[in-house]
## 1
Amino acid sequence: MWKISTRVLAFSLLLLRSPHALPLQSPNPILLVSTIDFLPILRPLPTIPTLLSSLRYCSNDAGGGSDTKSGELVRRIVDILRESGNSMSLVKHKLDNCGVAVSSSESESVVEVLSRVRNHWEAAFTFFVWAAKQPGYAHSQRAYHSMISILGKTRKFDTAWALIEEMRGGRTGPSLVTPHTLSIMIRRYCAVHDVGKAVNTFYAHKRFNLCVGVEEFQNLLSALCRYKNVQDAEHLLFCNRNVFPFDSKSFNIILNGWCNVIGSVREAERFWREMSKRGIRRDAVSYSCIISCYSKASNLNKVLKLFNQMKEMEIAPDRKVYNAVIHALAKASFVKEALNLVKTMEGKGIAPDSATYNSLIKPLCRARKTNEAKEVFDEMLRRGLSPTIRTYHAFFQILKSGEEVFDLLEKMKMKETGCLPDKDTYIMLIRRFCRWRQLDNVFKLWSEMSENGDGPDRSSYIVLIHGLFLNGKLEEAYKYYMEMMEKQFLPEPKTEEMLQAWISSKETADVQRIGLKDNQLDHGMSSKKTQVTCKNVDLGRDFQQQPETRKVRRERGFSFWE
């Protein structure tokens, strides 16, 4: 039986219609046992207006959206959820009296509200339960999946399983549980590196009368590799060869984990040889993984050798292979050759996309070759390709002042660009401003992030707290640490250790300060007594050195000594 948090269980009992989460047991747990013995020249920078003026288009669509009625409903509910703070009873009271009606036609609006408050699980869950009680409304599959993802992200797994049980619909209603439902839980377990429960969830397919095949097994491997559990994924692959036969896709998933998630050339080469020993055919995906690994490691010779090997084996390179080779060439300052390769891939019938040009722009910006990056960007626009968020991130790396950063940020937020800054954009800029010691700009970005509907999450808090701590703003760092804990975001061990050490030293210093004041007070009283005593002693000690003086009293013609 899983250990259930008291607070989460109480919250679930109050709000859920199906309060008890069933424990997930695996009839046949997979053993994670391996059956194999694994053996620059800088050019003048263009003026910033010239650079920013051309960054006007982006591929994401920000203009569309719901109609006026749905948009107003979303805005009103989100304002209630954000303004009420951490008081869920107040949130529920305001929702009950806000006069907003949610019907089945508003299911997409419910999903939109959950998306905007996804970093505050209690507010999202309170709204989710409130919406379920509205007349004429029933949660859609997307709404359930959104809420389950939010709960899993904050490790409220028991409540998430209670929702999955609710999705089964009882004996009469249709079940809304699909393989995608369980894949959400698998990814959340993999994110917190709980491989055992991820595997148990994989076995739960049979419990929900869902088919289990090679595709579901490969989804499990992908989730494990995505969150750096590559070694465990490799063990699962070899231990289950009799149940799920080897194929190129399964091996490519593990190879991609070593190449692009872990980024270990040594492990990638080992597994590359293992594919050959096992007789697994290497396809274009295999080559794109290993070439990308060598490209990131700046090993241009290996990249070109493998690229030529593909031609010899008559394996047609795909767009990912070309992008990896182009990135390696640009990183090694062979920009002209990289552009020629772009033309070559066009001749092969493979049209370059935004990722192709990002493969050129990113290494050029990192090398501070701004003129060449600008030329590539202009070529990208001439071809009718729209820059993506990654394009903007590359140009953010070469900016040197807060004014330039905010100018480019405003260009992103213009309506014609349709490319709004995301969470990664704000985290990158907050980290940069902390390094520049421009804390006013840090707090400006922090406020802007909340206003744009992308409220701070766990990663945002960790970056902000570290930046404030390293800039000596210990009180502010502690304030945001407490705010983070109130939202039930788990801090990194390093963050918690750092702040707990500061709190301990602060408490020790306070105790010493109080003790010092008491000592000074006691010392002041004793010093006064000492001064009186010393004065008397000094008078006695100097008596013999003073001339004798005696007063004479005269009375009735006689003189008397006093």
## 2
Amino acid sequence: MEKREDLRSILPYLGVVVEGSSLQWPSLVIEPLKAISRGPGHSGIQSGELLFLAISDLRHSLSLSSQCLSASASHGYALFFDELLSTAESTKWFAEVLLALANLLLLFPSLLEFHYRNVDALIDGVQTGLRILNSQQSGIVFLSQELIGALLTCSFFCLFPTSNRDAKHLPMINFDHLFSCLYETNDEKMENKIKCIIHYFERICSHMPTGLVSFERKVLPLEDVALCVTYPKADSWSKSATPLCHFEVHRSGLIEDQSKEALEVDFANRYLGGGALRRGCVQEEIRFMINPELIASMLFFPSMADNEAIKVVGPERFSNYTGYASSFRFAGDYVDKRDVDFIGRHKKKIIAIDALCGMRMRQYRLEYLLREINKAFCGFFYQSKCQQYQRLFKGDGPCGAQLDQGIQGSDSISRSNRSVGLQEAPYVSVGTNEGIHGDEQIGNSEEKGGPSLEHQYDVGVVTGNWGCGAFGGDPEIKTTIQWIAASQALRPFISYHTFGVEALKTLDEVSEWILSHKWTVGDLWDMLVEYSTQRLKGETSLGFFTWLLPSLSAPHDRHD
């Protein structure tokens, strides 16, 4: 066990130790956990105040006392369990849920051992064990929902060592700051964030889910790498003759409530989870509260670089909610009825991509447009579809024939030298697993009863105002960037939620006009770059869509 490289990478961050050939809690931890598992009659824990004292004792047994918890954490645990919960809720928590969580902690070492004994058989030739998924290294981790439950219980008890996490660019993982923020702000949104997590614990303690969740780091290499799609240059986007995909506009509804199987975009922080375990309560943080299994990713994902995205498949939703930011409220139980795939993951695919923040006018510079479109493309692309990309870019086969028809005629933009796009993408022979990584390789397992790649390629993108709001992005630019990236990734559609943003009121008209004139990825990218250049020079102050619509009657003039 101790010879496994994956285990060695994560072990300093887990709290358990290797003794002989097995994983164990340090001996001083076991008896206190057993006492808690027998109920308040044995442990004496019947309040949030006493619970935090027990947490402090467990941390001392793990030699974590020198790694200080947030100063107000003790007050936060006491406030939530002793004042904000009703007497009946608090009594049930300490009489039933807490002891079940203690039992789960006692099982934690054996759950880890089972994980490492069995995880290598999931995908032939692909490492899938729990480990630090370092930056610039594509990789995937599969965790059972039971193991995730144990990991989040460790977070609740603040049992994860934290001393070296900053050096590894890892986000916080213990819940002390979450409870501390509750006390310091006395904010209803904080109370309701914690209610979502407490509800999750209640659910898994009454009925432990038995599925799997996968966590994958996707990377667009900056240099040419065999059998990989590499980081596209600006000229490659301009030359792309890929048709734009279908575009749906939704004025109401939420990304997580969509019914189609699709990539659901997480408007992420580069530190995955953002302020989920602090005061944050916008799109990403809310997603982590209603799908708490996402929090487990914060244990082992260092921050994302510009050429990276993170994909999570299978996280179950446990809570309903209303509101947003300060108005966020827990709204009771949610039963996730999504189908599961052949290895037990819910058919829910979340793509985390972090937008640039606070760029103001700099967001219109070519280098930052390129960063944003490649970030989105990294989230949306299929590594396994390199050959199809190359055929489309070269105009070969049926796709090429459709493309030729799409860019002919007086309504289309005159193009030259667009027969090849994204030249950096190397040829991959589809039909083998060569060059295919992580989740996509599962799609080749038809002999195991899994979905075929053709089925996977029906998966579109569901998104919204990525990088706008607090990050300050231009919603018209960010909308267009995501559409271009999804189209280049050969996604069949984008389902876009505007969330009532005024700047997007003409999005239906603009997208319909562009599609009716059969524009390509390169066409729209060139328009975006030209508009942005004019914005930087002060030659226009119009929004992109207002600027674009008058220009459409004579598009040739903009490419001479």
## 3
Amino acid sequence: MSTEDGSIPEDDPRLRMVRSPRIHLISESQLLSEVKQIYAGLVMVEAKCVEVDGKQAALAKAMEQEGLSLPKLTNEQWQALIALHRTLLYEHYDFFLASQHPSASASLRGLAAKYGMATRMWRHGIHSFLELLRHRLPHSMEHMLTFIYLAYSIMALLYETVPAFEKIWIECLGDLGRYRMAIEDDDVEDRGVWTSVARSWYSKAADKKPSVGRLYHHIAILARPNVLQQLFFYCKSLTVSIPFAFARQSILFLFQSVSSNNLPASHTQLVNVCFVKLHAIWFTCINFNHFDGVLNEYVSLLDLHISEVGEKWTVQGCLVAVCSIAALYQYNTRESKLRQAWKEGRTVVKEEEADEVPAQIPGQGTGSECDNFLPPLPREANSEHATTLLAPASSKGKENTEEYKASVTASNRDEALDASSCVPWKYAIKMGFKIFNLVLQRIDDNHILPHVHSWLAFLYHIKDSIPAIRLLENDLPWDSLVTLLNSLIKSEPASSSHMDSSLNFATPTFPRGQNRPLPEDWTLRGLEWTENYLPQGWIEDAKVDDEERLLELPSFVALRKQRILWLAYKLAEAGDWLTYDTASMRFSVHPAVLERIR
């Protein structure tokens, strides 16, 4: 009740302060006991999952060898299996929440990493069961959908609540999205949605780990039917700092598809298919007698194609350059002449600190009571998260690809017994530099600059090894390159003095422009030959939305010119390939390289 003036009396019950609820803090010992109890139950369920999945996998293998079909499981059996694996996922979730509790000590928090809990959760709780379900399609479709949605929701929850393992959760979510996409045959729209979901997660994972080739391999699978993007991501998965060797098998699916001529016949697709065929010949060592004809056809189509697609070639041109450079590296094989030459003659050697104490993994050897209170570390706990390549959608596709693989193997064995004929490096040089030379002829076409930028970034890396650049210098189109460089200088008014002017390239520092990466910077990051080009944090610190990364802004033209001229200037400073006259502001081919070419 209020007083006459409308105020509330001081003794009114509504003014009494409500006591806050008593907070019961959990102690370290209580957390340890909770984690130990959860882990004991988890191990029991995990062992049961391993046993059941192992028996089913062995049965499937035996039946396949005998040519028999697998016996169908009843709905009750499927529900029991899903309940078993759901229990394991819940146990893992509880373990992560307890071990990553805000009150947990550093050693307790490190237990999940030490015991490889995230990897074990994926391997035994999700992946093995998904493979069991996949091998029993289409009868297991409904149950597979149920389990995928269950696993996806738990992974999404872990992504939100346990950020310490964010990189693993992101990749797992991508894998689950790819499984969901792969089993969708009826609804094209749903398949497209899940393709976009999986690609989004893998792209996010690549942002976190740009040097891991496995992620680009997965993105390549999702890039169908864009054959140029597929080829690019497969090449990138093989030429980043941590290459993914399995991509050598997966890329054969792409080569088989272009050789079957079952792709749409649009002009753009025709040009890109022609380019992929060049790589198919070079990669598989088959039909080298057709190489020159395919190359001439591609070059004849390319000039008109660049004119037709216009700004789109700012993206495509960079992809073409990266693929051509991957071919020069022989797709990162052990026999790569360029890699061997670069290692032999590199002038920039990373210092190895032999006496450096290795970094301590959280929770290992900390001397705390947490170190040994759980059972011994399982053998597979430290394995890296990775999934097997999803099988082709149909048995026919699998048979065709296996037949193609067999033909590749037979050709390599019978027609190319010695290494020099199996990997004739001259074809990669001819392909890369003939395309590069054609692009350089397009003076005043700003759409070709990302392609040129990519090649200059590669030469910026190769310049640190005399033997490596000597392998290339006889075939590099030096005259065409110099002509283009000088045309870039002429295109900028001499009176222009602002910092973003392309004329401000004769500096020791990397041209940053507006501190926003160029679209091709996102494409080039992670590649081994760009590690010393892009500054530390250049990509990571950029606040650019995913949708805007490849957006071409008007300001990028001047910055791209500046970058190209800066790279050429650094190449001129480093050796006897180019010269730059500051008075006339002109590049020219160094007399020494002309003499060596003669």
## 4
Amino acid sequence: MATSKAILSLLQGCNSMRKLHKIHAHILINGYQDDPCISERLLNFCAVSVSGSLPYAQLVFHRIHNPQTPAWNSMIRGFSLSPSPLQSQAAILYYNQMLSASDSRPDTFTFSFLLKACEQVKEEAKCREVHGFIIRLGYDRDVVVCTNLIRSYAGNGSIETAHKVFEGMPVRDLVSWNSLISCYCQAGLHEEALRMYDEVRISKVGFDGFTLVSLLSSCAHVGALHMGVELHSFAREKRFLENIFVGNALIDMYAKCGSLGSALSVFNSMPKRDVFTWNSMIVGYGVHGRGNEALAFFERMLMARVQPNSITFLGLLCGCSHQGLVREGVRCFHMMSSEFNLEPGIKHYGCMVDLYGRAGKLKEALQVIRSSPFFQDDPVLWRTLLGSCKIHRNVEIGEMATGKLVHLGSLCAGDCVLLSGIYAESKHMHGVARMRKLIQSQGIKTTPGWSWIEVGNQVHKFVVDDTSHPDSKEIYRKLEEVVHRASLLGYAKEESQKSQVEESESHPQDYYCWERENSTSFHSEKLAIAYGVSRTPEGTSLLIVKNLRVCRDCHSFTKFVSKAFDREIIVRDRVRFHHFRDGHCSCRDYW
């Protein structure tokens, strides 16, 4: 007869459901099914192990007489870990059943697993209900429970409530700080995440790799290069550079902050590299418009015997598109499936449409759309084609693309204004008037453009005609000087900008600068440039980050400013990087 100790030992070493079935048979034969330790260990494997089975766990659970808290926890945990929202919902049902049909009471683990389920299924109301119960039972002083409460609220979009929970915690450990910073990052509140940096230092809980990765991610998003460099120094000092995740985050940060040289330096110094390391460099070269270097890096990647993935090819196609490398881009696209068995996604087809469209091969771009599996129901490809029609002033295909967007119910204000721009440059003023009327009659809303610039370790945000900045008067005085000096070198406002719909610029929402304009209007990047010029020493490079694509007038303006003030100005828009120096742009006006 097997002893309970022997059965527990077997359960400890179990690694498959096949073995578990045999062990379970021994348990039943020897009459140990009512032993709490054995039944809970058996249940835990079925519910939680990657080799387990939730249906079998349910079978085991429902045969336990009067299950105690650990058994309920196993079921709640197992279902909360499932990627399926339906199964995560089951975790909440088990919790409800635990409270209503048993004498067991939840503990730290119960609340932690339950809150994970609330986050998964977006049950904010349940999260608030559980929060109240947590307070009544006194678990609001438990650092683990409160940390999971923060994550659950943030996952449900209640960032402010998550912050209040954090502020109310009597004790905060590093995991708590990391959770709040990560919540800000995932919600796109990168400025708030970076403000936490000084608070973490003051709290003296220390830093770990998770802290650095989250902060570096926020630096990358807002273009906070100086803070990124400071974090890099800290990582070097505390010996975090051997952490591959920190290394990858540093490469991504430097590439997105316009410093490919520093990104390459980090890459070369890394003792270990994975596919994400290589991808960060390839995508970095791609968005900077350096397609040839992206291709060369890809060859190095293959020589290092690293298997590329779909992100690798996005970086390659992006680089080829921005540099006009049509033949190379087509080769990469076909290579995905023929050599690496990777199925191209919507973004890859979008890059191909952009590749052909920028090069003026609009019929080939149209053929890519028609041959793609996304032809019937995705507006992205048609919107990309419409952008190419604007570059090459093709009314016929532009009208076709707009018609498809209307058919898909995806027409936005940017599409209308883009087609209006095509009409205007073709002297088709009836079409311009028709688009203006459509925007007004449909009440189509636009998304305002904004620009970020980092000055003195602080990120400043501007919108069109912004007067909210505390130094607003000084900024506008400086901007007058900047415009004057640029004008002396030949800058003049783009005439095509003046011939568009009065209420907006000539470029599409999500792809181009979309900011309300009149004869005295100043776009957000012009304000950011003026602030940067006034607040940094002569010769200092400026990095501007935009949420939309830079418009033609601002592109021309920045070229003249770079020459007038002898500065490098780097602009990262929604699509790519522009490096302005001595009156020229790295894109060579191919954008």
